[in-house]
């Protein structure tokens, strides 16, 4: 029996590695891509094609490598596009062909591939569109917020980040996140997600008591495993079937939609910070929270903006996608939670709150 | 022993005839190789000094070319508009699009150092498309990072990246849709050329 198992194991392995499929030509594939990768990446460092280098070596800087990145390009790509049979590939192809190419990177793909048209996928992601009747206003607000970020929020956050060490800033973020517990608790209740509501309450108690007033987040650790419920009020409305309405960019507060503006309002009323005295205290605290948050993700906005052809459109789309996903993920989560046969999710909400 | 061998051989045949059971998780395997290589470069102490930045970029580019299906990426970003581009325009677009991505993300990626990548699961979207869910763990946050991959021949390549629930390709699709609703493909390419050139 042991022999049998061993033989089977061996042969299965053999079958996996040998990839005995008919089209051996395209065997660059999965199991074989490791051997391909190593030599080709090796070539990118050295002009003379030394193949089969151990992976550790090629990450060392080679003196010759700096001058020759362009030459390396096609040789790295060649085995791919030509679909050379696995083992012997790169050294035979690389140096001969590459110098003749006027533009080195040209051969990363099959030319036929370039010719094939786009065919929409049936089930494929339906484009997330967000109605934007206020576009001129929104664009103006986008520019205001953009300037606000680069002229005020970013420099302040950067300086703050240099002074305050990261762990402390993470603790501050935890503290504010813990303080936002009422929104999440209410959202869970409104979504008839009682186990979520219980978990949120548990988190709040544990993090407030053991987590030094919410500075630490012991609930998320493995022992308790009570991660923050990913809920908000706008999402709750979305789960009830309310569409986003249209896109609004609020000054200071940023991208939102008609529906998610309800969330902004809800957050305001449910946050203890809003009830601080004197009148300017809530604003100050919010400002500090924004600075702290921003200090932990400087560069995100810059990347989003930099990668965009039209940053306004890019951000609008990112917002639309993000909100839609958040609602859908939650819907899935809620249906999964229900024991089978209990029907659709937030049916019994009305009675649930009483 | 002979009998065992016989069974084993039969099994082996059956296994090799099945459509591709060995490919379950193949996308993840391919991805892992690429990601590990990227991490290796990022964590390589020999490449730490700022002067090695270009070297690192070149190495990353070599991986990028193998990891991503650039044509698929471009085609999907343009969606229907792809069909109204001629071959030369398509080729130029693929080039420009890569440069746009590289300009923004190369420095971003190089800034990563102590992050860990966790591969969560792989879901098949269709016969030749898979979605690999990963998380990037850093000290201050966890970023959900999903790769959509397509198999052509036997090679799995990435054609879309979903970060924090936002699909990169879809984001570009929205932009190009609106831009091309008002402009010709040539004007759009001109915008891209300008974007690539600006510092």
In short, what is this structure?
With 354 residues, chain A is mainly α. Chain A has helices at residues 2-18, 33-43, 55-58, 69-82, 89-97, 111-115, 135-163, 166-179, 181-190, 194-209, 233-239, 258-270, 281-296, 300-307, 311-337, 349-353, and strands at residues 247-250, 254-257. Chain B is of the alpha+beta class and 199 residues long.
List keywords for this structure.
heterodimer; A: 354 residues; two-stranded antiparallel ribbon; 58% helix; disordered C terminus; B: 199 residues; alpha+beta; Nuclear Transport Factor 2, Chain: A; 7 helices; 56% helix
Describe the fold and architecture.
The complex is a heterodimer of chains A (354) and B (199). Chain A has 354 residues and is mainly α. Helix content of chain A is 58%, strand content 2%. By secondary structure, chain B is an alpha+beta fold. Chain B is built from seven helices and five strands. Chain B has helices spanning 2-17, 26-43, 53-67, 70-78, 87-111, 168-182, 185-197; strands at residues 116-126, 129-137, 142-152, 155-163, 166-167. In chain B, helix 5 (87-111) packs parallel to helix 7. Chain B starts with a helix and ends with a helix. Chains A and B meet through helix 1, helix 2, helix 4, helix 6 and helix 8 of A and helix 1, helix 2, helix 3, helix 4 and helix 5 of B.
As a percent range, the share of strand residues of chain B is 15-25%
**Number of β-strand runs of chain A:** 2
Helical stretch count of chain B?
7
Q: Which percent band covers the strand fraction of chain A?
A: under 5%
Task: Please mark out the parts of chain B with pLDDT under 50 across 5 or more consecutive residues, or reply none.
Answer: 19-24
Rg of chain A, Cα atoms, Å: 28 Å
In angstroms, what separates the terminal alpha carbons of chain B? 70 Å
């Amino acid at each position: 029996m042991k022999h049998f198992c061993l033989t089977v194991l061996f042969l299965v392995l053999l079958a996996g590695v040998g990839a005995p499929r008919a089209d051996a030509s395209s065997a660059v594939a999965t199991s074989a891509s490791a051997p391909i990768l190593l030599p080709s990446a090796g070539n990118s460092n050295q002009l003379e094609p030394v193949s089969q280098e151990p992976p550790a070596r090629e990450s060392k800087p080679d003196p010759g490598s700096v001058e020759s990145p362009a030459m390396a390009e096609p040789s790295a790509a060649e085995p791919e596009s030509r679909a050379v049979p696995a083992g012997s590939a790169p050294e035979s192809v690389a140096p001969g062909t590459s110098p003749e190419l006027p533009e080195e990177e040209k051969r990363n793909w099959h030319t036929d591939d370039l010719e094939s048209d786009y065919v929409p996928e049936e089930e494929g992601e339906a484009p997330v569109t967000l109605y934007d009747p206020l576009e001129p206003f929104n664009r103006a607000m986008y520019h205001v917020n953009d300037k606000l970020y680069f002229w005020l929020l970013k420099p302040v956050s950067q300086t703050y980040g240099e002074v305050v060490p990261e762990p402390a800033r993470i603790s501050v973020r935890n503290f504010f996140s813990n303080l936002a517990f009422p929104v999440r608790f209410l959202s869970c209740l409104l979504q008839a997600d009682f186990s979520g509501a219980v978990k949120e309450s548990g988190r709040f108690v544990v993090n407030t008591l053991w987590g030094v007033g919410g500075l630490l987040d012991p609930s998320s650790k493995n022992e308790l495993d009570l991660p923050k419920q990913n809920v908000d009020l706008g999402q709750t409305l979305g789960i009830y079937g309310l569409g986003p309405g249209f896109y609004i960019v609020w000054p200071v507060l940023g991208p939102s939609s008609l529906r998610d503006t309800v969330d902004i309002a809800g957050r305001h009323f449910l946050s203890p910070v809003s009830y601080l005295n004197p009148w300017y205290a809530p604003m100050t605290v919010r400002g500090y929270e924004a600075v702290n948050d921003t200090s932990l993700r400087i560069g995100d906005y810059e990347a989003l903006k930099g990668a965009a052809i039209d940053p306004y459109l890019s951000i609008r789309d990112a917002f639309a996608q993000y909100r839609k996903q958040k609602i859908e993920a939650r819907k899935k989560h809620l249906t999964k939670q229900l024991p089978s046969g209990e029907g659709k999710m937030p049916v019994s909400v009305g009675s649930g709150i009483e | 022993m002979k009998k065992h061998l016989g069974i084993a051989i039969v099994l082996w045949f059956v296994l090799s005839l099945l459509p591709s059971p060995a490919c379950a998780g193949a996308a993840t395997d391919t991805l892992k190789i690429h990601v590990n290589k990227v991490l290796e470069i990022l964590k390589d102490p020999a490449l730490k000094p700022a002067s090695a930045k270009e070297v690192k970029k070149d190495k990353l580019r070599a991986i990028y070319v193998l990891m991503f299906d650039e044509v698929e990426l471009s085609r999907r970003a343009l969606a229907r508009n792809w069909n109204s581009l001629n071959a030369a325009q398509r080729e130029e677009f693929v080039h420009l699009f890569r440069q746009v991505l590289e300009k923004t993300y190369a420095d971003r990626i190089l800034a990563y150092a102590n992050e860990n990548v966790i591969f969560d699961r792989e879901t098949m979207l269709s016969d030749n498309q898979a979605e690999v869910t990963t998380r990037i763990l850093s000290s201050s946050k966890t970023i959900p990072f999903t790769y959509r991959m397509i198999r052509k021949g036997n090679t799995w390549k990435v054609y879309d990246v979903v970060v924090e629930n936002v699909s990169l390709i879809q984001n570009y699709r929205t932009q190009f849709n609106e831009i091309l609703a008002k402009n010709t493909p040539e004007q759009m390419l001109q915008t891209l050329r300008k974007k690539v050139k600006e510092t």
